[in-house]
Amino acid sequence: QLQLQESGPGLVKPSETLSLTCTVSGGSTSSDRHYWGWIRQPPGKGHQWIGSIYYNGNTYHNPSLKSRVTISMDTSNYQFSLRLRAVTAADTAVYYCARHRRIFGVGPIDSWGQGTLVSVSS
Amino acid sequence: QSVLTQPPSASGTPGQRVTISCSGSSSNIENNYVDWYQQLPGTAPRLLIYSDDQRPSGVPDRFSGSRSGTSASLAISGLRSEDEADYYCAAWDDSLGGYLVFGGGTKLTVL
Description:
Chain A is mainly β.
C-alpha cells in the first residue's frame, strides 16, 4: 500500500527557506500515471496547492507562490522535495505531500501524507 | 478567499440526504473536472469523488457528485454520524497558466 511521509524542520525563521522532503513507500515515483505534489493548509483555513512534479521533472506551480518555490524529485531514493524561500508568518501551515492521478494533467489527489506542521517564527 | 465557493456549514440528521455546493467560474468548474475530499479532524483529506462523479474503490455509494455549468455538488444520502467532517471541492483553473484550486470547505454536522 502506498505511503507518503513528510520530513523536515517544524520551525523556520522569517526570511529563511522552508525545506521539506516526502518519502514514498509502496509505490514508484517513476510512474507516468502520477504526479507528486505539495499542498498546505494554514491553521483553521482551507487548502492551497503549492505545486507538483512529474516523473520526467516537469513542474507545475501555484502562480501566487511560483517565485519562491522549487520542487524537485529524486526517483532513485523515492523522494521529492519542496523548498519555499523567504518565508513569513503567512507560510505557517500544515504541509502535505501527495500523489495525483494523471487525468488530463495534474488530476485528483488519491494519496496524502499525514501532514507536518511548519511554523514560521523567530 | 478561495477561488471555489462553498457554504461554510451544512447539517442533517441520520438517514437524511444532504447536498454541498461548490461554485466556480468558466476558468475552472465549467471546463474542468471537479473532485471532492473528506477531511476528518486531525487527519489528512481523503479522495471521495473524482472526475465529477466517480468514486474511488472503498467509497460507499451513498456519496455522489455532479457538475453543471459553473457549479458542482456533492450529495450524501443515508447520512451517518461518521460522515461528520469537512468537505472540500477542487478543480483545475485554466487562468494564469493553470493551477489547482480548492474550495474553502464545508463543515458537515450530523445532528
